[in-house]
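Hi all, long-time lurker, first post. I run a small reading group and we've been trying to get comfortable going from sequence to structure in the token notation. Rather than ask abstract questions, I figured I'd post a concrete chain and ask someone more experienced to write out its structure so we can walk through it together at our next meeting. Sequence below, copied exactly:
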Amino acid sequence: MSMWTCPKCGKELTRKDQQHYCLKPQSIDEYISLQDASLRPRLEAIREAIRAAIPEAQEKISWSMPTYWKGRNLIHFAASKKHIGLYPGDEAAAAFADRLSGFDTSKGTIRLPHDRELPLELIRDIARWCYEKYAKGRTMKIDPKLFRWTRAPKEYSISADAITVTTEPHTDLWQRTYYHFRNDNAPVLQMETEEKFFSFVVKTDFSGSHHRFDQCGVVMYLDSENWLKGSVEYENERFQHLGSVVTNHGWSDWATTAIPADVKHMWYRFSRREDDYCLECSQDGQSFSQMRVCHMWEGAGKIRFGIYACSPEDSSFTAVFTDLQITECAWRAHDGQQPDVREKE
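-- Answer (accepted) --
Happy to help. Here is the structure in token form:
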């Protein structure tokens, strides 16, 4: 049999100009740019329909196709010679069988012919169904083995149920503001993600804190000049500071409120919506109160988040972290005033 060799990638195929993925796209933008110009507006329309339906999902390339992911692959789409394939899976195709009666479907695939108007409302509904079915309400207990140290302390323990950190004297995170010093030596234990919408929950036990500024809590440490943290900082026998610090481009700010000194446990919930973040706290792990909403200038791509503990003055204590979980983003999109129109970067 005579074979045809693709001039771009050198792959041998049975037919001349046979469709194949000789260039592996690294993003959905790149995928669409590689398609025929006549298909790009249709692909962009499908993309926007899915993004509008499930803004919580992460865009990625999987199986060489545009994919929407939230704990698992939810839905894909891809261009073909005569149609665009939508791939929500067998269950979704069955759930929408009545509305799909005019389309060619098989094994979880929906074929959208190029000569027909795109059923964008149906695509949005299918995408949302996939999210509700497979991702909404997802709670995942975190395997501590996924975490990596930045400046590991001398004494710590990591098990399936708890992480303990014994702080060392004169460890801290702070940059410039008011105090005019830069401290960047606190131990930080974090995991990485590119997921754009999620929440991280952790319970902290700081029963051993006893000296001014002893602290432990939740953190997102990108580098020495870009990070945020939330914690309770011991002050004296009467009160302590429940607060958060946001550091952008080397300048820290600290927002606090006083709470009784006999509070020795606190839950935190760290939530991400793209490059905006929310910190919340709770004393029972059920009812959370907002501590801080902020924007992180360097927080749009891959991030690291987790836990930290430190003792800025001459002291030491053991912090205990339990009940680490990842959930769907508990910080909902704003349902009031609509966003200003912004140009695409």
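A couple of things your group might point at:
Residues 21 and 64 are 7 Å apart (CA to CA).
The first helix runs from residue 28 to 33.
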